[in-house]
Amino acid sequence: MAAIAYYYPADTVSEEEREQLILAHMLQVRLVARKIHERVPDSICFEDLLSAGVVGLINAIDNFDPRQNVKLKTYAEFRIRGAILDSLRDIDWAPRLKRKQAREFEAAISRAEQRLGRTPEEAEIAAELDLPIDEYRQKLTEMEALNIGEVEYIRDEHEMPVILKYAASAEDESPARSLERAELEKLIASSIDRIPKIEKTVLSLYFYEELTLREIAEVMGVHLSRVSQIKSQAILRLRTSLAKRWPGVRS
Asked: Which residues contact 246 (CB under 8 A, 6 or more apart)?
């Protein structure tokens, strides 16, 4: 079956072989769904993520073409993850007040950056919001759920690390959109270079190494809530930076 998966286009695979391929890759779906489920609010049902992942797997198998020099496992993971993230974007679990608060924080970061002429420190952002540092950090923790699906680390078809990429629709494959995404990726990379080192570290461990916040806390030797705050602040910085340089990015 591995030979069928790798050497033949999807339209040459029989219905029986297709079903066997789906069954053979179900563990991959479960693993991807499990990793994502560890990062979302408890209200999100694992079975819902699993179902979305299966849809992505079937889509991958039905559209797989090894002549593009991509392994089915790599292509399937991209489609599985994309389908699950798409399903999450359809769920608006963040209260409207939290979204408004996130926009206020992004505006404060932008104001502080303009006033100081550099990337503002955490305390300076809190001061811009006229909040005590402890209260500012608590609000960052509460914003954790707002960050799902905006940006993510993925690997390319050669299993090489790729910098944070904007999570675009898997179906949007036009040359113009591909060029647009490439330019956006450059802006994201540039924005990441400007944030504090500790925030870069958390983003790398969370998005690329795919560690949970609890695992990152253990690695860095800090409290779990602090890791959540650092991640939220880093994402707010990136979104603020991108909104200035790429107005079309959804904030």
From this structure: 184, 187
